[in-house]
Amino acid sequence: MKILSADQTRAADQATIKAEGIRSDELMERAASAFSDWLMDRLSLLTPHEVHIFCGPGNNGGDGLAVARHLHLAGYAVQVWLLPADKYSPDFTVNRQRLPTEVLCTHLKPKKLPSVSPKATVVDALFGTGLSRPLAGLAAEVVEHLNDSKATIYAIDLPSGLFTDAPQPSESAVVQAQYTVGFELPKLAYLLPQNARFVGEWEVLPIGLNTEFIHNTDVDNHFVNTAFLTGRYPKRPKFAHKGTFGHALLLAGSYGKVGAAVLAARACLHGGVGLLTVRTPAVGYTILQTAVPEAMALTDPATDFVTELPDLKPYAAAGIGPGLGQEESTANVLCQLLRKAAEASLALVIDADALNILGTHRELLDDLPPNALLTPHPKEFERLTEPAHDDYHRLELLRDFCARHRCYCVLKGAYTALGTPEGPLYFNSTGNPGMGTGGSGDVLTGLLLALRADQRLSPLDAALLGIFAHGRAGDLAAQQTGEAGLIAGDIVRFIGPALAELVS
């Protein structure tokens, strides 16, 4: 699913109007009808609702007026508040004329804003994606008033004051909506942590924007859902065998951290790898042989941490990092692996302590083989690059990092972002807060290692399938455990069912 910029969204609207031979107010009516139906599904006529709709002078205000008409005709008591302006958009004017006279419509005045009960339903239709500067004057006063009201706020398309594609000044007024409802495609602003208190929960409703225009439009960002992954995960051949799905090498574990190696190994096996060998210090041998009997344990000469790199010839992919430690001899193993991987045509997955070693020795980044896959959380990514000014800046750092080092980088978190060597970013749609628990990242590493070992998959498809299935497994697990009770081992148990949903 593509993520369009504000300019591209407006172009998509115009392409739809032209292709279908309709008026702009007719397309607006689609959006208003979709939003109204969505909202009425959440409200009940059996319970009295105080519904306030705040409308700006542009097309977002036109949406609000059309929604007011729909709610009124459905039997809801609606009060419309208009932001005064010297000029109103044509579609605003059309919908103002269509509004039944029974609907009370009042212009807002400075210092005399309406009382809004905390139990009220508020529809924010002040400003949408066309906003290019921070709100000021009466508009900012209205926004702050709504935020102070503690009413439940539903934003149409975008909370007023929030920019679509860029950060707004930290002190600017922005509506703090509990729900944001967009149309056809998600917006980048929905996906970033710094906007969470404004966007709240969000949903996108279809309104029939021109599919040909969307298909032919190049974008920098994509939203990964089940439909986006259709056809990327092939069904297993009838005569497949363990050699078909690759032999993976996992370098993981150290004294006190062998559990990370166990979690990663289990995830790799549940991710469908043909064969798995775990390189671990001698202290991990009995643990691995007992906890993960399906994997082969290749012990290091050292007792407590990994000090030597084994022969790489048998392997299609190698993963390094979970519970590894950062001893100097372990750092040397990573250094050797980076330099030999390209020669051995070895796909790499790099996580956890291996990332911390790279952060300490940034010169090693120049040795990353093409298409290496790194899986940092934001703090680990900062050690590889620099502190980000905001979430938008972090995405630019991600884009630049992947292009410079010809690698893939999974920036973990809600809506995990995958950076690519070619430039586009991919935001994941699965996962839940319960996955913010120790070991969840180790599970992701093991799953990605299995998929990178599968030679049927491109590096991009392996990464996309891995982050999606990891989140989906967490969602399936949370249905049984609840988010608070979710542990990393629960995610492992649901990797198989999550991948099964993606088989084409």
What does this structure look like?
This protein has 504 residues and is an alpha/beta fold. The chain folds into two domains: 2-219, 3-Layer(aba) Sandwich (Rossmann fold), CATH 3.40.50; 245-370 and 421-498, UDP-N-acetylmuramoyl-L-alanine:D-glutamate ligase (3-Layer(aba) Sandwich). The protein has helices at 6-20, 24-42, 59-73, 90-98, 137-149, 196-199, 211-216, 258-270, 285-291, 328-341, 352-360, 378-384, 391-405, 440-453, 459-481, 488-493, 495-500; strands at residues 2-3, 51-55, 78-82, 104-107, 121-125, 152-156, 179-183, 201-205, 221-224, 247-251, 275-280, 296-299, 317-320, 347-350, 373-374, 408-411, 417-419, 425-428. It has an eleven-stranded mixed sheet, sandwiched between helices. A seven-stranded parallel sheet has the order 4-3-2-5-6-7-8, with helices on one face. Strand 7 (179-183), helix 6 (196-199) and strand 8 form a beta-alpha-beta unit. Helix 11 runs parallel beside helix 12. The radius of gyration is 26 Å and the shape is elongated.
Give the SSE layout.
Blueprint: E1 2-3, H1 6-20, H2 24-42, E2 51-55, H3 59-73, E3 78-82, H4 90-98, E4 104-107, E5 121-125, H5 137-149, E6 152-156, E7 179-183, H6 196-199, E8 201-205, H7 211-216, E9 221-224, E10 247-251, H8 258-270, E11 275-280, H9 285-291, E12 296-299, E13 317-320, H10 328-341, E14 347-350, H11 352-360, E15 373-374, H12 378-384, H13 391-405, E16 408-411, E17 417-419, E18 425-428, H14 440-453, H15 459-481, H16 488-493, H17 495-500
Parallel strand pairs: 2-3, 2-5, 3-4, 5-6, 6-7, 7-8, 9-18, 10-11, 10-13, 11-12, 13-14, 14-15, 15-16
Antiparallel strand pairs: 1-9, 16-17, 17-18
Subunit structure: Homotetramer.
Protein name: Bifunctional NAD(P)H-hydrate repair enzyme
Catalytic activity: (6S)-NADHX + ADP = AMP + phosphate + NADH + H(+); (6S)-NADPHX + ADP = AMP + phosphate + NADPH + H(+); (6R)-NADHX = (6S)-NADHX; (6R)-NADPHX = (6S)-NADPHX
